[in-house]
Amino acid sequence: MTKRILITGANRGVGLALVEALAADAEQVYAGCRAPTAAAELQAIAEACGNITVLPLDVDDADALAEAAASVDVPIDLLVCNAGVLNGYGGLDSEENALEAESMAAFAAVLQTNIAGPFFTVKAFWQHLQKSPKAAVAIVSSQMGSQQHEAANAYAYRASKAGVNNIMITLSHELDAAAIAVAAYHPGWVRTAMGGPGAHLSTEQSAQWLAQRFAELDMSRSGRFINFDGEDLAL
Q1: Angle value at C-alpha 99, between 95 and 103, nearest 5 degrees
Q2: Which of 9, 141, 165, 167 can bridge 15 by disulfide, Cβ–Cβ 3.0-4.6 Å?
Q3: Structural domain boundaries in the chain
Q4: 36 to each of 10, 172, 183, 220, how far by Cα in Å?
Q5: How confident is the model over 211-235, as pLDDT tens digits?
Q6: Residue 172 C-alpha from the chain's centroid
């Protein structure tokens, strides 16, 4: 049993489902989100479970990350970097990627949240991970970040997930000496605001699969990009 878990982006979608799935076998789950007072469903789950702490946490805000880390006074055994954003699927001709300051800022925001966010989250909770006898970091990525694709859309999101897979590899090298395993995971095509109503998996199904994968995460799997069903994926 993983005793103490921290999850970012815990107020909706796969993150919310992960909170409930992982809390079933955890001593304590810290569920991080930007606006806890607005996260009614997460608050209800936390109240019902009793071992969930809802934590103000914005992966794009250095001060918020520092405050969140300071408020957690126990080792973290599993850090789940789940927070992410998608700014659309358009290509060169789409209005959402028009050549203007607003669309360039939106593109940069996706890279900030999806690539830099996990790195700075791990950095913020680095001491907590070091205090665990067997710590691990799970990064929720996407198969859309694989270089082995033929699509011609969602440039920012695809680049961000390719980037965070690179972050995962680099972290796995740095944390190898501390015996902290790091891996990235594709949650499947999930029926969320990002995935749409026609996706294959419910958030609950994806979370159950991911919970199994996280339980398997050890040094033999560190540095890998893993599908929700356990198969290795191409970077």
Answers
A1: 70
A2: 9
A3: 4-227
A4: 10, 31, 28, 36
A5: 999 999 999 999 999 999 999 999 9
A6: 16
> Residue 163 is encoded by which pair of tokens?
């980037």
Report pTM: 0.95
Nearest CA among 216, 77, 214, 73 for reference residue 133: 77
Structure-token pair, residue 85:
């954003």
| pLDDT value of position 89 | 81
Architecture of domain 4-227: 3-Layer(aba) Sandwich (3.40)
pLDDT digits over 52-102, tens only? 999 999 999 999 999 999 999 999 999 999 999 998 788 888 777 777 888
Give the three-class secondary structure for 139.
Answer: strand
Distance (Å, whole) CA 86 – CA 63: 24
